Structure formats: C-alpha cells, structure tokens
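FAQ: What does the model actually see?

It sees only this:
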Amino acid sequence: MQFAGETDNALMEYTSRGNKEAYEALFLRHWQNLFNIAYRKTGNNQDALDIVQELFIYIWEKRESIHITGNVAAYLTVSLRNRIVNWYRITSTRTKQKEALLERLQNMPESTQQQQAATDYTATLEQWQSAIDMLPDRMKEIYVLRHHHQLSIAEISSALSLRPQSIRNQLSEASDRVRSALEKHLWVAILISITV
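And it is asked to produce this:
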C-alpha cells in the first residue's frame, strides 16, 4: 500500500488535501481498535460499527478544517468516546420515550390501540418511502439494494463497481438522512418498534 509507511499525522495531512488513499489507509490502520472500544461500550456490533463509520465520515467531510498537531490515535479515541456518550444520551432518551408511549398504549382500549397502530404504521411507511425518494440517485440505489433487497456490502460493491468503503459511506449518509427525516415522526417509529 502506498501510504503504509507514513505516520498518522502525514496521513491526516494528505487526507486534508483530499487524498482518498491516505484516508483509507488511516481508516484501515485504526478502525479495528476503535470498533473494539465502541463495542465494549455499546455491547452491540451494529451500533459500534455505525459509531466508527460516522466518525470517519465526519473526518472526511471536515478534512479541510481538522488540524491535529498531537497524537492522531488519541484524537480519534477521544472523538469516538464523545460519540459514544452522545449515543448513550440518544439511546436513553429513546428508551424513556418508548416507556412513556408504552404506558399510554396500555391505557388505551384494545380496539383503539390496533386502529392507531395500523394508521401509524401506514404513515411511517409513507414517510420512510418519502425520505428514501429524496436521496440522491446513486445513494438511493445503494440504500434500496441494502435495505429492500438485503444485498451485502460486497454484493452491492460488485454490482455497482464501487469500493466497499464507498458503499459504507453512502449507506451511512443515507441512513442519517432517512433517520433525520423520520425524527419528525419519532413517536410513530417508536410505536412500530413496540408493536412489531
């Protein structure tokens, strides 16, 4: 690999200039250790992977404004820990919202619960499809292949002739955009997660 012998700081410098190979080298050098930390803290493979991917997507998107003069590994670890704290905060808030909604549902007559659940389920599916339709074409194609057709990253990469990391980046961005669009209807999404 072209950048195998470079220091972390050199990789960050190349990355800040838009060099994707240096960025990938930085990712490959650190992702496993960061994933291990995230997994120990979250106890969930997918959440840990999402947190690490979001960190590296942030680094790429903000590459021109991030200037690290000290230890890059330490910077990545601290940034990861901040994201984990944020993950706990969001998870805790959603848990409280679910509990409040569950209590409300338990106090509803059963026929009202079923009617409300059906209405909310339909509304959420419509919102989800609307959020997907607003994605850029290539991002939408990748998201649909992954979530509607259940293709693996490797299968999508092969089908579209794109690098696996590019697929991961697109999926992460698409998930963020869809999640953001659906946050307006969060209580509906919570309802579905309780009733399904």
